[in-house]
Amino acid sequence: MQSWWMQMNEADAVLEMRDVPVPQPGPRQMLVRMHASSLNRGEFVAGHGLHGATGSWKAIGGEGAGVVAAVGPDVGDFRAGDRVMGRCPGAFSEYAVMDCAEAMAVPSTLTWEEAAAIPLTFLTAFDMLVLQGRLAAGEWLLINGVSSGVGVASLQLGKVLGARVIGTSGSQEKLDALKRYGLDVGLCTRTADFAPEVLQATDQHGADLVINAVGGSVFAENIRAMAFQGRLATVGYVDGVLHADLDLEVLHAKRLAVFGVSNKLRSKAQRAASVPRFITEVLPHIAVGRIRPQIDREFSFAEVPQAKSRMEAGGHVGKIVLRIAS
Question: Is 289 left (phi over 0), alpha (psi -120 to 50) or beta?
């Protein structure tokens, strides 16, 4: 089968399509004939720890959708022919192995491309907004880099939960495009200058939950923009800034909570623990169309380098998707 591999160096990443054996599923695993997969920025950012040691080669892709081709021992939930989506390593391949604990049935209302855009991004949003962020109806949600894949997912999930959403982006065109998903306030900025506008938009209340998908360059400004007992989730650092000042006086007085969102150090069981709740609480909204994955652009399986370039250029709104099989 054909599979995309990547070598991450200190300055750049090298991509290579390889012809490799079809993997075999182990206990509680399924072999999936991949129909679509989607890109995630962290896969291509040095330091995120998603591609092994510097200079090593690794099969890439972290999520996708397809048809179960074979099942391993002790698989009782799925059978050959089922349509599934989920997080799985090596998803930029014609076949990939998916753990049953990570797999979800694809709603009949979704295309393969839409299904491939859901697992990693929306599970991350669910982690930030619900499991750790405890977002409640009527609260203010601030999303840095709202046009990113995780940003749009957080916007959509936030609106379903009844939140009022403020998003930042360096492009007014992107902000305008996201109004149809319920973006209440769009702040066009590429610098850490948005706290006064957040406070003005919220009648000086501030943001109850902040999603920082940008990095250290906006961390201090997020602290300034937060409400009493606000929560701040850090999910990425595409700006490459890994250190930031923390105003301990404000942290202390406002009783703020700061947490990270990453699967890098989690076990398989820890990663999969939220899937049942996601299936119960979020998937019904997706199935009936209250939440619809935003696809920025689709590329063919052979166009992974072009898809990577599209993501790194930062011009996308939502998810970039690969069509692997018809």
Answer: left
- Per the CB < 8 A criterion, the answer to whether 87 and 120 are in contact is yes
- What is the rounded distance in angstroms from the CA atom of residue 185 to the CA atom of residue 164? 8
In the chain, the domains with their CATH numbers are: 2-118+266-323 (3.90.180.10), 125-260 (3.90.180.10)
Maximum C-alpha span of the chain: 59
182-222 tens-digit pLDDT: 999 999 999 999 999 999 999 999 999 999 999 999 999 99
- Measured between alpha carbons, how far is 48 from 69 in angstroms, rounded to an integer? 32
Question: Sign of dihedral through CA atoms 217, 218, 223, 224?
Answer: positive
CA 186 to chain centre: 20
Cα angle value 47/50/53 (rounded, 5°)? 70
pTM, two decimals, is 0.94
DSSP SS3 for 38:
strand
What Cα–Cα distance (Å) separates residue 293 from each residue in 114, 181, 207, 283, 290? 6, 10, 25, 12, 10
Q: What is the pLDDT of residue 54?
A: 62
pLDDT over 60 (residue 50):
no
- Which run of H or E residues covers position 240? none
State how far the Cα of 48 lies from the Cα of 260, in Å rounded to an integer. 13
Answer for the pair 220, 241: CB distance below 8 angstroms, yes or no: no
